[in-house]
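Minutes, project huddle
Topic: does the predicted pose make sense with 4'-phosphopantetheine bound?
PN asked that the exact inputs be recorded in the minutes so nobody has to dig through chat later. Recorded below.
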Amino acid sequence: MKIGIYPGSFDPVTRGHLDVISRAAKLFDKLTVAVMVNPDKKSTFTAAERVDLIRRAVDDAGICSVEVESFDGLLADYAKIKNATAIVKGLRALSDFEYEFQMAMTNRLLNSELETIFLTTSSENMFLSSSMVKQIARFGGDISPFVPSCITGDIQKRLLKVKADQEANK
Ligand code: PNS
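Predicted holo structure (tokens), as shared on screen:
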């Protein structure tokens, strides 16, 4: 049984992430989408919210053999627990490469059995990022072209609430 892990912050999941999930799901018997902690980023959505959004997007898209979980720890350890053969990461542009390469090398040092596979995103998602989605929503823009349609309303509502809370605390 070939098991793959697609890790990330997914804060929140975008159409670009969903594209990678659907491509990666075809390469493995089972794909685990892992909502992980990136110590370099402060997340807006809780881990439970991010898991829920991804699950709904995956179900709505009819993608099979995918589980969604969160894990607070080292990806290399999580891969061992899950018996995963490979980590999948999406590469948008050359600018992603250095950071992703560094992570892939580190993960291989921590778990020598673990390969990292890079999938290129489709061209319409090249520029897309969760930070962009948050910025657009913050200024009242329409995020519907960038996030899965079944969760657009909930993401927009949540981000407007974050903005309102921040303004109330000023
Ligand atoms: O979507 P992101 O923020 O680029 O994903 C980065 C993530 C969460 C995959 C990475 O920070 C991670 O693997 N975090 C878990 C902790 C860990 O294993 N760190 C060492 C990897 S170099």
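Observations noted during the meeting:
- The radius of gyration is 16 Å.
- The first strand starts at residue 3 and ends at 8.
No decisions taken; revisit at the next huddle.
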